[in-house]
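Chapter review: from sequence to fold.
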Amino acid sequence: MDDSPVGVSHPSARPLPGVTASRDYLAIMLQSLDERRKHRVAFRRMATDMAKRYLVQMEIFRTRGLQRLENLLSDQVPPLSDAKLDEFARSVDAAQRRLRVSDKRRRELMDIVEDYTPGPDIVAYRHAAGWYPAPEDALSLQGFLASRAPEGEHGQSFRYLSPTTDLMGWVCARAAGTTWAEAVSTYLWAPIGAEHDAEVTVDREGTPRAAGGLCVVPRDLARLGLMVARGGDGVVPEWFVDDLVHNGNPETWARGDFAENMPGGRYRSYWYHPGVEPDVVMGVGIHGQMLYVDIPRQVVVAVQSSWDEPDPEHDHDDNRALCRALAAAAAGG
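The token string follows.
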């Protein structure tokens, strides 16, 4: 290995068998608690360097022109022949008969798959956010956001679109003069007394995604809810919490995407109002995550979840009913 700084040592690294002071070695602690990013960058750099050195020496790769690490994975899906498609259709039909799935249920399942099969805009969004392996010419997250055009007239109906949350994260970062993650850490996470660091996904430029990918422990999620329940608790202005709790246009909601699923609801500052009891707000995730804040009862319910299927409405209904029952029970009725 050359003398370039491809890694870092770790103070707790133990002596390795067969390694002496006269031999060069590199200790990389991928699960270390300090400077984790630096160690992982060093590992990727070392792996890339080794690939450049040794792939070209292997005939099976050299003759196919696979001389770079990224060349080993294709971004093209191999086409299926008509014969393979017919074979697949027969296999699906046989599975349907074996599992006794009715034609009606099969159609319902196909509709669900079609609803959540990502179109080109979603694929481009996930490439930009770093959630899909991206081609070399893919936009960054900020590049993708800057490429979007307005859809519909502002203020006419409610429509949830994740990129608008990412855009607000970009605005917050610019206002704070730092990254969105650092702003959240400085102005929210540390002040609420979080026990553990949170982690968030980033794109290839290191831009955090504000709309999703934030990983926290349940107790810290509950602390965030308590901050809202206590009117900001000195962390955010009381007027801001009052606004998100008591405002939001029910008429706009009634003309929007989720009106049938949550009648009488509202939406304000990225929080949902279920419209069942006054002064109750929720944060909701598509795979069952929920932060339920009952301000009159001063009860917070934090739900972590990973449903296989995104946004099954009956499960969202059950989640809300469960949280409402837990809040009532915890407050004594």
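Two observations follow directly from the output. The longest strand covers residues 280-284. Residues 1-73 form one domain.
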